[in-house]
Amino acid sequence: MSKDLPGAAGDLAQRHPTLWAAYSDLGKAAAEAGGLTARERRLVKLALAIGAASEGAVHSHSRRGLSEGIDAADLHQVALLAIGPLGLPSAVAAGTWISDVTDKE
């Protein structure tokens, strides 16, 4: 499990496997609590990461979105949608974080 996680998250999972398992179970329960599709959940998580200004989380959800078959253009649209609520500078920053991932593909 922790071998698949980059950076600090992988370190935490390796050092505290019981804690990581509980965290993972909570995420699974939250995902199953409603009717959103996996695609919708990934895009919402990306939007939340953008709103939190978490570059690492934006990278993570962008990578995961691509691996789940979400088009790079759709990931970038989430950043564009942030212009209204978060402002142009935040949306531009988010777009660059998404590009960090999509430009590697």
Automatic annotation (TrEMBL):
Biological source species: Palleronia sediminis
UniProt lineage: Bacteria, Pseudomonadati, Pseudomonadota, Alphaproteobacteria, Rhodobacterales
Protein name per UniProt: Carboxymuconolactone decarboxylase family protein
Superkingdom of the organism of origin: Bacteria
Pfam families documented for this protein: CMD
Gene3D superfamilies for the chain: AhpD-like
Positions of the Carboxymuconolactone decarboxylase-like domain: 19-94
GO MF assignments: peroxiredoxin activity
InterPro entries: AhpD-like (IPR029032), CMD-like (IPR003779)
